[in-house]
Amino acid sequence: MRELAVDRAAFKRWLELPALHDVDARLRMMDEFGEDYQQVLTLSSPPLELLAGPGESAALARLANTSMRELCARRPDRFPAFVAALPMNDPDATMTELAHAVDDLGARGVQVFTNVGGRPLDDPEFAPVFDEMARRDLPVWLHPARGAGFADYASEDTSAYEIWWALGWPYETSVAMARLVFSGLMERHPDIKIITHHLGAMIPYLEGRIGLGWSDQLGSRTAGDAYERLHRARLPRRPLEYFRRFYADTALSGSAIGTRCGLDFFGTDRVLFGTDCPFDPEGGPLYIRETIRVVDGLDITGAEREQIYHGTVRRLMRLD
Protein backbone atom coordinates (compact mmCIF):
# COMPACT_ATOMS: atom_id res chain seq x y z
CA MET A 1 0.00 0.00 0.00
CA ARG A 2 2.92 2.33 0.61
CA GLU A 3 3.83 2.10 -3.08
CA LEU A 4 0.27 2.86 -4.18
CA ALA A 5 0.10 6.14 -2.32
CA VAL A 6 0.29 9.18 -4.58
CA ASP A 7 0.49 11.36 -1.49
CA ARG A 8 2.62 9.59 1.11
CA ALA A 9 1.70 12.15 3.77
CA ALA A 10 -1.94 11.07 3.52
CA PHE A 11 -0.91 7.61 4.71
CA LYS A 12 1.15 8.75 7.70
CA ARG A 13 -1.63 8.39 10.26
CA TRP A 14 -2.99 5.23 8.65
CA LEU A 15 0.29 3.39 9.10
CA GLU A 16 0.54 4.41 12.76
CA LEU A 17 -2.83 2.92 13.80
CA PRO A 18 -2.89 -0.90 14.06
CA ALA A 19 -6.69 -1.02 14.42
CA LEU A 20 -6.96 0.24 10.84
CA HIS A 21 -5.05 -2.61 9.22
CA ASP A 22 -4.65 -5.33 11.87
CA VAL A 23 -7.89 -7.28 12.33
CA ASP A 24 -6.77 -8.88 15.59
CA ALA A 25 -5.95 -5.45 17.03
CA ARG A 26 -9.38 -4.20 15.97
CA LEU A 27 -11.14 -7.16 17.56
CA ARG A 28 -9.23 -6.77 20.83
CA MET A 29 -10.28 -3.14 20.94
CA MET A 30 -13.92 -4.04 20.26
CA ASP A 31 -13.86 -6.62 23.05
CA GLU A 32 -13.52 -3.74 25.53
CA PHE A 33 -17.13 -2.74 24.77
CA GLY A 34 -18.85 -6.08 25.24
CA GLU A 35 -19.93 -8.97 23.08
CA ASP A 36 -22.82 -7.07 21.49
CA TYR A 37 -20.68 -4.17 20.19
CA GLN A 38 -20.57 -4.13 16.37
CA GLN A 39 -19.17 -1.96 13.59
CA VAL A 40 -20.21 -1.41 9.98
CA LEU A 41 -17.08 -1.66 7.85
CA THR A 42 -16.00 1.20 5.57
CA LEU A 43 -12.66 2.19 4.10
CA SER A 44 -10.91 4.98 5.95
CA SER A 45 -9.55 8.13 4.38
CA PRO A 46 -7.80 8.79 1.97
CA PRO A 47 -10.06 8.23 -1.06
CA LEU A 48 -9.15 5.50 -3.55
CA GLU A 49 -8.55 8.09 -6.26
CA LEU A 50 -5.71 9.51 -4.19
CA LEU A 51 -4.09 6.08 -4.19
CA ALA A 52 -4.66 5.00 -7.79
CA GLY A 53 -5.41 6.52 -11.18
CA PRO A 54 -8.45 5.68 -13.32
CA GLY A 55 -6.71 2.64 -14.74
CA GLU A 56 -6.05 1.05 -11.35
CA SER A 57 -8.74 2.32 -8.98
CA ALA A 58 -11.34 -0.24 -10.08
CA ALA A 59 -9.09 -3.15 -9.11
CA LEU A 60 -8.34 -1.51 -5.77
CA ALA A 61 -12.06 -1.00 -5.07
CA ARG A 62 -12.77 -4.63 -5.98
CA LEU A 63 -10.03 -5.81 -3.62
CA ALA A 64 -11.34 -3.62 -0.80
CA ASN A 65 -14.95 -4.69 -1.21
CA THR A 66 -14.13 -8.37 -1.52
CA SER A 67 -11.95 -8.18 1.57
CA MET A 68 -14.61 -6.39 3.62
CA ARG A 69 -17.17 -8.97 2.53
CA GLU A 70 -14.86 -11.79 3.62
CA LEU A 71 -14.33 -10.17 7.01
CA CYS A 72 -18.09 -9.80 7.50
CA ALA A 73 -18.56 -13.47 6.62
CA ARG A 74 -15.80 -14.50 9.03
CA ARG A 75 -17.01 -12.38 11.97
CA PRO A 76 -20.70 -11.53 11.49
CA ASP A 77 -20.97 -11.12 15.26
CA ARG A 78 -18.69 -8.07 15.05
CA PHE A 79 -19.15 -6.86 11.47
CA PRO A 80 -22.78 -7.31 10.36
CA ALA A 81 -22.40 -5.28 7.15
CA PHE A 82 -20.01 -3.29 5.01
CA VAL A 83 -20.21 -0.16 2.88
CA ALA A 84 -18.72 -0.38 -0.60
CA ALA A 85 -15.78 1.67 -1.86
CA LEU A 86 -16.12 3.07 -5.38
CA PRO A 87 -13.50 4.03 -8.01
CA MET A 88 -15.05 7.47 -8.48
CA ASN A 89 -12.34 8.65 -10.90
CA ASP A 90 -13.57 6.04 -13.41
CA PRO A 91 -17.31 6.62 -14.06
CA ASP A 92 -18.02 3.39 -15.93
CA ALA A 93 -16.09 1.29 -13.42
CA THR A 94 -17.92 3.05 -10.59
CA MET A 95 -21.32 1.86 -11.75
CA THR A 96 -20.00 -1.63 -12.46
CA GLU A 97 -18.48 -1.90 -8.99
CA LEU A 98 -21.58 -0.46 -7.33
CA ALA A 99 -23.74 -3.18 -8.89
CA HIS A 100 -21.22 -5.92 -8.10
CA ALA A 101 -20.73 -4.81 -4.50
CA VAL A 102 -24.45 -4.58 -3.74
CA ASP A 103 -25.80 -7.45 -5.84
CA ASP A 104 -22.99 -9.99 -5.57
CA LEU A 105 -21.20 -9.11 -2.33
CA GLY A 106 -24.13 -7.81 -0.29
CA ALA A 107 -22.89 -4.29 0.47
CA ARG A 108 -25.52 -2.27 2.33
CA GLY A 109 -24.48 1.13 1.01
CA VAL A 110 -21.63 2.99 -0.66
CA GLN A 111 -19.15 5.62 0.50
CA VAL A 112 -18.23 8.70 -1.50
CA PHE A 113 -15.93 11.57 -0.59
CA THR A 114 -16.84 15.25 -0.71
CA ASN A 115 -14.90 15.85 -3.91
CA VAL A 116 -13.33 13.63 -6.53
CA GLY A 117 -9.91 14.94 -7.44
CA GLY A 118 -11.14 18.48 -6.79
CA ARG A 119 -14.41 18.04 -8.71
CA PRO A 120 -17.68 18.67 -6.85
CA LEU A 121 -20.23 15.93 -6.30
CA ASP A 122 -22.90 17.85 -8.20
CA ASP A 123 -20.87 17.35 -11.38
CA PRO A 124 -23.28 15.55 -13.77
CA GLU A 125 -20.74 12.74 -14.12
CA PHE A 126 -21.47 11.62 -10.56
CA ALA A 127 -25.27 11.88 -10.75
CA PRO A 128 -25.73 8.19 -11.71
CA VAL A 129 -24.29 7.11 -8.35
CA PHE A 130 -26.88 9.08 -6.39
CA ASP A 131 -29.68 8.16 -8.78
CA GLU A 132 -28.86 4.47 -8.47
CA MET A 133 -28.58 4.50 -4.69
CA ALA A 134 -31.91 6.32 -4.47
CA ARG A 135 -33.43 3.67 -6.73
CA ARG A 136 -32.00 0.89 -4.59
CA ASP A 137 -33.10 2.63 -1.37
CA LEU A 138 -29.68 2.17 0.23
CA PRO A 139 -27.57 4.84 1.95
CA VAL A 140 -24.62 6.88 0.70
CA TRP A 141 -21.98 7.63 3.33
CA LEU A 142 -20.37 11.06 2.77
CA HIS A 143 -16.81 11.53 4.07
CA PRO A 144 -14.73 14.72 3.80
CA ALA A 145 -11.66 14.76 1.54
CA ARG A 146 -9.16 17.53 2.04
CA GLY A 147 -5.41 17.51 2.60
CA ALA A 148 -2.64 19.90 3.54
CA GLY A 149 -2.43 20.97 -0.10
CA PHE A 150 -5.62 23.00 0.41
CA ALA A 151 -3.94 26.20 1.59
CA ASP A 152 -5.61 28.40 4.19
CA TYR A 153 -5.00 31.51 2.05
CA ALA A 154 -4.38 32.12 -1.64
CA SER A 155 -0.91 33.51 -0.91
CA GLU A 156 0.21 30.20 0.63
CA ASP A 157 1.06 26.78 -0.77
CA THR A 158 -0.12 24.59 2.09
CA SER A 159 -2.38 24.66 5.11
CA ALA A 160 -0.77 25.45 8.47
CA TYR A 161 -1.29 23.84 11.88
CA GLU A 162 -3.51 21.05 10.45
CA ILE A 163 -6.25 23.60 9.83
CA TRP A 164 -7.05 21.60 6.67
CA TRP A 165 -8.27 18.81 8.97
CA ALA A 166 -9.71 20.53 12.06
CA LEU A 167 -11.66 23.21 10.18
CA GLY A 168 -11.24 22.16 6.56
CA TRP A 169 -13.05 18.86 6.86
CA PRO A 170 -16.24 20.36 8.35
CA TYR A 171 -16.10 23.03 5.65
CA GLU A 172 -15.67 20.36 2.94
CA THR A 173 -18.67 18.42 4.16
CA SER A 174 -20.83 21.52 4.48
CA VAL A 175 -19.96 22.69 0.97
CA ALA A 176 -20.67 19.25 -0.49
CA MET A 177 -24.04 19.18 1.26
CA ALA A 178 -24.85 22.63 -0.12
CA ARG A 179 -23.87 21.70 -3.67
CA LEU A 180 -26.07 18.61 -3.53
CA VAL A 181 -28.98 20.66 -2.15
CA PHE A 182 -28.72 23.41 -4.76
CA SER A 183 -28.25 20.90 -7.57
CA GLY A 184 -31.81 19.79 -6.87
CA LEU A 185 -30.80 16.27 -5.82
CA MET A 186 -32.86 16.30 -2.63
CA GLU A 187 -35.91 17.47 -4.58
CA ARG A 188 -35.48 14.87 -7.33
CA HIS A 189 -34.99 12.15 -4.74
CA PRO A 190 -36.86 13.26 -1.60
CA ASP A 191 -36.20 9.94 0.15
CA ILE A 192 -32.50 9.61 -0.70
CA LYS A 193 -30.40 8.52 2.27
CA ILE A 194 -27.12 10.45 2.55
CA ILE A 195 -25.27 10.02 5.84
CA THR A 196 -22.97 12.94 6.63
CA HIS A 197 -19.90 12.55 8.80
CA HIS A 198 -19.36 14.62 11.96
CA LEU A 199 -23.07 15.25 12.56
CA GLY A 200 -23.65 17.39 9.49
CA ALA A 201 -20.44 19.39 10.01
CA MET A 202 -21.13 23.15 10.20
CA ILE A 203 -24.74 23.00 9.03
CA PRO A 204 -26.64 22.50 12.34
CA TYR A 205 -24.75 25.30 14.10
CA LEU A 206 -25.45 27.64 11.17
CA GLU A 207 -29.19 26.93 11.06
CA GLY A 208 -30.11 30.62 11.35
CA ARG A 209 -27.59 31.73 8.75
CA ILE A 210 -28.78 29.04 6.34
CA GLY A 211 -32.43 29.81 7.06
CA LEU A 212 -33.20 33.52 7.38
CA GLY A 213 -29.81 34.57 6.07
CA TRP A 214 -29.43 32.32 3.01
CA SER A 215 -32.63 30.43 2.22
CA ASP A 216 -34.74 33.58 2.42
CA GLN A 217 -32.25 35.98 0.81
CA LEU A 218 -30.56 33.85 -1.85
CA GLY A 219 -29.27 36.08 -4.63
CA SER A 220 -29.42 39.32 -2.66
CA ARG A 221 -25.61 39.46 -2.49
CA THR A 222 -24.89 38.31 -6.06
CA ALA A 223 -25.25 39.97 -9.45
CA GLY A 224 -25.81 38.07 -12.66
CA ASP A 225 -27.01 34.69 -11.38
CA ALA A 226 -30.65 33.76 -11.91
CA TYR A 227 -31.39 32.51 -8.42
CA GLU A 228 -35.09 33.16 -8.76
CA ARG A 229 -35.16 30.69 -11.65
CA LEU A 230 -33.23 28.24 -9.49
CA HIS A 231 -35.93 28.41 -6.85
CA ARG A 232 -38.68 27.81 -9.39
CA ALA A 233 -36.94 25.07 -11.34
CA ARG A 234 -35.07 23.09 -8.69
CA LEU A 235 -35.97 24.17 -5.18
CA PRO A 236 -39.67 24.77 -4.59
CA ARG A 237 -39.00 24.56 -0.83
CA ARG A 238 -36.69 26.61 1.36
CA PRO A 239 -33.12 25.30 1.03
CA LEU A 240 -33.00 24.84 4.82
CA GLU A 241 -35.67 22.14 4.52
CA TYR A 242 -33.48 20.11 2.17
CA PHE A 243 -30.51 20.29 4.54
CA ARG A 244 -32.66 18.65 7.22
CA ARG A 245 -33.16 15.64 4.94
CA PHE A 246 -29.58 14.47 5.39
CA TYR A 247 -28.67 11.90 8.00
CA ALA A 248 -25.67 12.35 10.30
CA ASP A 249 -23.40 10.34 12.57
CA THR A 250 -22.30 11.24 16.09
CA ALA A 251 -18.55 11.35 15.34
CA LEU A 252 -17.77 14.60 17.17
CA SER A 253 -14.84 13.45 19.32
CA GLY A 254 -17.02 13.37 22.42
CA SER A 255 -18.63 16.81 22.17
CA ALA A 256 -21.89 16.90 24.11
CA ILE A 257 -22.70 20.45 22.97
CA GLY A 258 -22.19 19.58 19.31
CA THR A 259 -24.23 16.40 19.62
CA ARG A 260 -27.19 18.23 21.16
CA CYS A 261 -27.00 20.82 18.39
CA GLY A 262 -27.03 18.12 15.71
CA LEU A 263 -29.93 16.30 17.35
CA ASP A 264 -31.94 19.52 17.53
CA PHE A 265 -31.33 20.11 13.83
CA PHE A 266 -31.83 16.64 12.33
CA GLY A 267 -33.98 14.90 14.94
CA THR A 268 -33.19 11.59 16.63
CA ASP A 269 -34.58 9.58 13.71
CA ARG A 270 -31.81 10.90 11.41
CA VAL A 271 -28.83 10.57 13.74
CA LEU A 272 -26.80 7.37 14.06
CA PHE A 273 -23.89 6.27 16.18
CA GLY A 274 -20.41 6.93 14.81
CA THR A 275 -17.11 7.61 16.55
CA ASP A 276 -14.19 8.24 14.14
CA CYS A 277 -12.50 5.17 15.64
CA PRO A 278 -9.54 4.62 15.69
CA PHE A 279 -8.29 8.18 15.09
CA ASP A 280 -7.91 9.14 18.75
CA PRO A 281 -4.95 9.45 21.14
CA GLU A 282 -5.44 5.82 22.27
CA GLY A 283 -5.71 4.42 18.76
CA GLY A 284 -9.39 3.57 18.88
CA PRO A 285 -11.22 3.07 22.20
CA LEU A 286 -11.19 6.66 23.49
CA TYR A 287 -13.58 8.08 20.88
CA ILE A 288 -15.91 5.12 21.37
CA ARG A 289 -16.00 5.61 25.15
CA GLU A 290 -16.49 9.35 24.87
CA THR A 291 -19.27 9.08 22.30
CA ILE A 292 -21.09 6.47 24.39
CA ARG A 293 -20.76 8.80 27.39
CA VAL A 294 -22.32 11.64 25.40
CA VAL A 295 -25.17 9.57 23.95
CA ASP A 296 -25.96 8.02 27.33
CA GLY A 297 -26.08 11.51 28.86
CA LEU A 298 -28.56 12.97 26.36
CA ASP A 299 -31.99 14.03 27.62
CA ILE A 300 -33.87 11.64 25.33
CA THR A 301 -36.02 8.55 25.80
CA GLY A 302 -34.62 5.05 25.93
CA ALA A 303 -36.25 4.28 22.59
CA GLU A 304 -34.59 7.31 20.98
CA ARG A 305 -31.23 6.25 22.40
CA GLU A 306 -31.65 2.79 20.89
CA GLN A 307 -32.48 4.44 17.56
CA ILE A 308 -29.18 6.29 17.63
CA TYR A 309 -27.14 3.28 18.71
CA HIS A 310 -28.45 0.79 16.19
CA GLY A 311 -32.06 1.24 15.12
CA THR A 312 -31.57 3.95 12.49
CA VAL A 313 -28.56 2.41 10.78
CA ARG A 314 -30.24 -0.99 10.64
CA ARG A 315 -33.32 0.63 9.13
CA LEU A 316 -31.29 2.53 6.53
CA MET A 317 -29.33 -0.56 5.54
CA ARG A 318 -32.52 -2.67 5.63
CA LEU A 319 -30.93 -5.25 7.91
CA ASP A 320 -34.14 -6.01 9.84
Rounded mean pLDDT is 93
The CATH class name reads Alpha Beta
Number of strands: 8
- Per the CATH scheme, the topology name is TIM Barrel
The total tally of domains equals 1
Largest sheet properties: 6 strands, parallel
The rough form would be described as globular
Report the span from N to C terminus: 36 Å
Helix count, DSSP H or I runs of 4 or more residues: 16
Strand composition percent = 5-15%
Return the string of H and E elements: HHHHHEHEEEHEHHHEHHHEHEHH
Low-confidence stretches: 1-6
What helical percentage do the residues reach?
40-55%
The appropriate CATH architecture is: Alpha-Beta Barrel
* CATH H-level homologous superfamily name: Metal-dependent hydrolases
Q: What is the CA-based Rg, rounded?
A: 19 Å
Helical/strand content category: alpha/beta
Main-sheet strand order equals 1-2-5-6-7-8
